[in-house]
Amino acid sequence: MNELNGKIELSEQKSILQEAETTKEDLPRLLEKKGISYDSLRYEEYCELPPECLAPIETLDSIKKCSERIPAVSFFSGAGGFDVGFSYAGFENIISIESNEVFCNTLRANNPSKIVIGPPQYSGDISKREELAAILFEHGITENFPGVFHGGPPCQSFSIAANQRFSKNDDNFKRKGFDDEEKGTLIFDYIWFIKKFRPIAFLIENVAGIMECDADGRIKTALDSLADDGYMITAPKVLNAANYGIPQNRMRWIVAGTRNNKEIVFPEPSATVTPCGSVFLRPIDNVQNHITREHTAESIGRYMKLPYGGRDKLGRVDRLDPRLPSKTVIAGGTKGGGRSHLHPFAPRTLSVRECARLQTFPDSYIFTGSNARQFTQVGNAVPPLLAYKLAMAIKESVF
C-alpha cells in the first residue's frame, strides 16, 4: 500500500494553506472549491512501511456470534463495550445498568428490546443498593443467578490520564482514588450486588492504576469476602489490550470469580502487539459516526510537519504510527470530547468511527448524542474484542 495514493502534491498543499491564511478564507470552503478533501492532504514525512503492519487484523465483524444464550447482567454498561463482546461469546445481556442518559440512549438504539436500567426512567445509580436490587428483582434477577455479572466501575478516580488533564494547581490533578465521594467506592457497591445475587461467575475491570490507590488493601479485603462466600477468585492481573489483538495500547486491570469450584483461565497474551495501520486501510464510506473535524490552515500547517509518532505540542495531539498499536483512545472529561489522535496518513484528527475501530466496535454499532459525547462513549468503553476473549474464557472455564 502506498500511503500517498490520492494525495495532492506537497507544493500545491502549501499553496492552498498560504492562500487560506492570506485571504482569511475558511480552509474547508477553499478545499471544497478546489474539489479537495482533508483526506487528500498529506504529511511532509512518510517512510516505507513493512507489510505486516498493514495486514488485516482480527475484528468482531469477521467473527460469527456464538449461539448460546447464557444470561448476563451488565453493570456500569457505558456505551456497551462489554455487552457487545459478551454477546458475541454466547451471552444474553438481559439487563444493562447505566447512570448516564446519553450512554443509555446508545444502548437502546443498538438493541431496542434490551432492558436498560437508567435515565430517564431510573437513576441507574449503583450506590443506591437496595433501590436497585428491588428493580432487579422486579425484572426477574434472583439470588443464585445462573449466569454472569460483568462490569467496569468508573475509573476516572484511579486513572493517571483522566486526572492529569488538569493543571498541577487544580484539585483534580492528583488521583482521588477511594476518596472520590461520587465514584471512588462504586467497586464496593458492585461487589455488594455480586454477594447479594450470587451469579455463577463475575468479572470486574478497571484501569491499571487502581491498585496503586489501594494502599490500605480495601480491594483485597473485598475480594477476600467474596472468597469467604464461596467464590474461587482469579489473581488480579494487568493486561495490555494490544497483546490480545486490539490495535491500541490500553492497560486494564481484571479480576474474576466463580462459585461452582471451577477455575477461570484467561488467555495468555501474545508475544507481539497489534499494529494499528490496517485500521486506516478499511473503507470508511457509508458508515455512521464518521464526521471529521474541519481544521484551520494553521493547524494543518503544524500537523503536516509531524513524523510518525510525533506530537503537536500546541494541540497536544499525536500522529499515530501505523507500525505500532494506537495510543490509548481518550474519553475526555465528563462534559464530553476526548482528544482524538491524528490519522497516520492524513494530517487531521480521527473521527468517532475511526476511534471506534481502534476500540474494535463493529461498524454496525452506532453512537448517539453530540459528536463530543460520542467520543466520550467510545473512549470510556472496554474494547469489545477484548471483552469477547475474556467472555469466551469464562464460558469455556465455567459453563
User: Rg from C-alpha positions?
Assistant: 22 Å
- CATH-defined fold name of the largest domain: Rossmann fold
Number of strands: 12
Please name the fourth-level CATH homologous superfamily of the largest domain: Vaccinia Virus protein VP39
CATH class category label of the largest domain: Alpha Beta
List keywords for this structure.
single chain, 399 residues, alpha/beta, Rossmann fold, 2 domains, eight-stranded mixed β-sheet, two-stranded antiparallel ribbon, 12 helices, elongated
Walk me through the topology.
Layout: H1 10-23, H2 27-33, E1 70-75, H3 81-88, E2 91-97, H4 101-110, E3 115-117, H5 129-138, E4 148-151, H6 160-163, H7 186-197, E5 201-207, H8 218-228, E6 232-233, E7 237-240, E8 251-258, H9 297-303, E9 311-312, E10 317-318, E11 332-333, E12 336-337, H10 352-358, H11 371-380, H12 384-398
Parallel strand pairs: 1-2, 1-4, 2-3, 4-5
Antiparallel strand pairs: 5-8, 6-8, 7-8, 9-10, 11-12
Helix pairs in contact: 1-9, 3-12, 7-8
